[in-house]
Amino acid sequence: MDERIVLILGTAQFQSGYGIVRDLDQAGEPAGPSLFELAPTLGIAALDTAPVYGSAEEAIGQSRCGLPVHTKLDPKRSPAESLSQSLKDLRRDRVDVLYIHDSAEVLRPESRVVASASELVGEQVGSLGASVYDLPEFEAAVDDPRIGVVQVPLNLFDRRLTRDLIASAASTGTIVYVRSVLLQGILAADPLELVGPTLPLRPYVVAFAELAQRAGRTRRDLAIGWVKAISGIRGMLVGAESVIKLREMVASFNSPPLDDDLIAELEALPYPPAAQCDPRSWTIVTSP
Question: Which CATH class, in words, describes the domain spanning 6-281?
Answer without folding.
Answer: alpha beta
